[in-house]
Amino acid sequence: MISWPKSPARKEKAIEVSEGSEPSLLLLTGYGLWLNTVDHNNIGAVITVHADSYSHLQKIKSGGKIEAGMNSSAGYAYRLFSDWQTSYLWYDLLWLQNPTDESHIDETTIEDRYPSLAPFYLAWRDSYEKSLEQQGCGRGSGLDPFPEIADRVTWEVEGFLIACWLVLQDDTDRVTYTILTGTYQIDKKSMNSILQQFLIDEDNILRLDDH
């Protein structure tokens, strides 16, 4: 059985991974992202990422209003990183197709643009903000936001899954996800390989903590 840490931002179903070449469901989130795994002759398993896609671009194609400065023929590039008392989601300023008049993406925009993701995303953001407050980080305590490594890994994994969901939307080209572990630039072509490396990195953190 695959065991995933519990998260307030994720409603998951862990499924027995069957042997053989047929894909098996590994994880299903409440916001429409799922992971499949395929076992290759018991040598190793490959994990692939999938998601339902619905965004405001569909409203634009139906005659909705185009945002100021947005090039509707190209996708957004986002940056996702923790920054106290923000939404944690930003436009990549180096991406010319992004809106030219703003950098931070506020909660209202997230709720309007990605309504199925928004409650899970904001719960994920709020869990970090709560940890910052409990640890006194805003008062210069110098403590880590998450006193337990397992809690940090849980939060970082959830953020990576959110970044993957964003990349798989029809209005997004890439997401650069920055956490203490490292920086991961995720796009549709590289997503599965980046996921493999990310999981290795997180596993190494847990192994070091065990020692």
Q: What does this entry look like structurally?
A:
The chain has helices at residues 56-61, 107-113, 118-134, 149-167, 191-210; strands at residues 24-28, 33-40, 44-51, 76-80, 89-91, 172-179, 182-187. It is an alpha+beta fold and 211 residues long. It has a domain at 75-210. Strand 1 and strand 2 (33-40) form a beta hairpin. Helix 3 runs antiparallel to helix 4 (149-167) and helix 4 runs antiparallel to helix 5 (191-210). The model is unreliable at 1-19 (pLDDT under 50).
Please tally the helical runs, counting DSSP H or I stretches of 4 or more residues: 5
Between the first and last Cα atoms, what is the distance in angstroms?
24 Å
Order of helices and strands: EEEHEEHHHEEH
**Radius of gyration based on Cα positions:** 18 Å
List the defining traits of the structure above:
alpha+beta; four-stranded mixed β-sheet; globular; disordered N terminus; 211 residues; single chain
